[in-house]
Design a protein that fits this description.
Length: about 120
């Protein structure tokens, strides 16, 4: 990355602080700016400030990420649904750009975000 070049912004939306921290640490090492949200309201505030990629847990406590997913798709922001659900086929049928099943490896995290970040650049 060239000096002065803006880093791509990844928003991690998950109600588990440990998952957000894991993603933050590893993605920042990869050169991304990482923001976090533990609720849909927090996520919407972060999206309004501008993000390039979103990692979205579909089960945020009592909230479901479906509505936010559709909003992000309308904004042409690539989204990886992060889920511990065993029904990955049902989630794969959503409008998400990718699905990242929990537990995931650091390599899976990094490759998914890199692929989505490249899509974002291509859409701009």
């Amino acid at each position: 990355m060239a000096t002065g070049e803006a880093r791509q912004v990844v928003l991690v939306v998950d109600d588990e602080p440990a998952i957000r921290l894991l993603c933050r640490v590893n993605l920042e090492l990869g050169g991304y700016e990482v923001r976090e949200a533990g609720s849909l309201d927090e996520a919407r505030r972060q999206v309004a400030e501008g993000v390039d990629v979103v990692l979205l847990d579909m089960h945020l406590g009592n909230e479901r990420g479906d509505a936010l997913l559709e909003e992000l798709v309308e904004l042409a922001i690539p989204v990886a649904v992060v889920t511990g659900s065993t029904d990955l086929e049902a989630i794969a049928g959503t409008s998400a750009t990718a699905v990242l099943g929990k537990p995931f490896t650091i390599d899976e995290l990094e490759s998914t975000v890199a692929r989505l970040a490249a899509l974002r650049v291509a859409r701009l």
